[in-house]
Automatic annotation (TrEMBL):
GO terms for molecular function: protein O-acetylglucosaminyltransferase activity. The keyword Cell cycle does not apply. Residues 1-65 form the Glycosyltransferase 61 catalytic domain. The gene is glyt. GO terms for cellular component: endoplasmic reticulum; membrane. It is found in: Membrane. Belongs to the glycosyltransferase 61 family. Pfam families: Glyco_transf_61. It comes from the Eukaryota. InterPro entries: Glyco_transf_61_cat, Glycosyltransferase_61. This is Glycosyltransferase.
Amino acid sequence: RLILNEAELIMALAQEFQMRVVTVSLEEQSFSSIIQVISGAFMLVSMHGAQLITSLFLPIAATVVELFPFAVNPEQYTPYKTLTSLPGMELHYVSWRNTEEENTVIYPQRPWEQGGIAHLEKEEQERIMASKDVPRHLCCRNPEWLFRIYQDTLVDIPSFLDVLREAMKTKPNFKKVKIASTVHPGRVREACCQTSVQTPNEAKLTVSWQIPWNLKYLKVREVKYEVWIQEQGENT
């Protein structure tokens, strides 16, 4: 799902806002370096995709601009719009949709998990190719969804800037005071209980787990874990 005219888009953003524009790569950069860049950004621009979860690290009052490929309706896919509206996030959300079919590059011959549709019946392939709007569906193996989401997009710069300018006019006034961090450790992982009988009158219960994934990124001096044991019955 590449932006085919990424360099042109970068220039347009730099000229529009008179600010430095940088790119980040989940494949080539470390997680910590990406967070460092995004945590100081005025705006995050990205094609729809899991990489937009990094908007969690934007500062208050920043703008998230989500680009949608041809035939993908922003009103039906709102995880990152929802994220920006959560209490304490205080982010401004903008979506742009490619409405020009000629500005998209499709890959019907790819493997199905990368959006290929060559494995489908000819009639189904033709129907998907002719569709102008991906219908609602259950995530995430729908072939029409995969076909469209893995397109490459040539962003129409004039329409993109029009959407952005209009959205910036309605940007709400966020609080000037930065909210204190409310990030907490995630769930423990791979929780495991093992029991063993020691003697006729003694049993042993061993509980183990892996630490939360984000614990190493939090500045905490001490972490305490609670283990709750609930008796359910004589033999359980």
